[in-house]
Amino acid sequence: MSNPSTRTRGRPPRLDQARTVETALDLLDEAGLDALTMRRLADAMGVQAGALYRYFATKQELLTAMAERILSDVGASAIPAGEEWSERLTGLARALRTALLAHRDGARVFAGTHSTGTHTLHFADTVIGVLREAGFDDADAARALMTVANFTVGHTLEEQAAAREPGTEAPADPGRLAVAVTAGSYPHLTATLPVLSSTDFTAHFEFGLRLLINGLRTLPQQH
Which of the listed residues 114, 129, 131, 137 has the most CB atoms within 10 Å of its CB? Predict the structure, then answer.
């Protein structure tokens, strides 16, 4: 990231959309979404805050561009070639989760935006294409996309919340659940506490994803 003290006097630093988004993602990884401000981003790039508004009129526009950049890592390689629709859909959901986890608070950034950029639309089109090619009608394919995306993003939100640094407010912290359950009379929660408080988020994700896939199998398919 640029340092204002190292800039050539009288010459403004190079500024463009791509560099701005990349720097914003660096700050996100470093300090988290709550600490990401337009002023802090401008300082990191060695420019006045007003210069950023040339490309992003609001912080929300910046976050939308960041979400789009996050999804750029979900490519065609996420779809297992030659596999049945369920395996291909599973691969896409896993790839989305991996992309969100690649950045601190990545799921929070993505969940708060409604990008219509190339990468986001390509991912959505690919998911729907997998389902339509398998024989699902258009309505079921569209709702399946929303269901899988909402599950994946929601799961990753909880996963990243639980993984915040010790001492920060983390509503999804499994340790807090364990303390609350053991302090009261909750026999069923106590019996299942090892799983409920487990930090094996991949196992949790795979279980939920299997439920979704099995549910989709019950829908009529046109052949």
Answer: 131
Alpha carbons within 13 A on the beta-carbon side of 121: 4
Supply the DSSP symbol for 12. P
Q: Report which DSSP code applies to 168.
A: S
- Select the more confidently predicted residue: 135 or 4: 135
Identify the helix (H) or strand (E) that includes residue 131. Answer: helix 118-133
CATH number of 4-57: 1.10.10.60
This prediction's pTM: 0.87
Amino acid at 52: L
Q: Quote the distance between the C-alpha of residue 184 and its chain's center.
A: 35
CATH C-level class of 74-217: mainly alpha
Residues 74-129: tens digit of each pLDDT: 865 666 677 899 999 999 999 999 999 999 999 999 998 988 999 999 999 999 99
- 183-189-190-193 Cα dihedral, nearest 10 degrees: -110
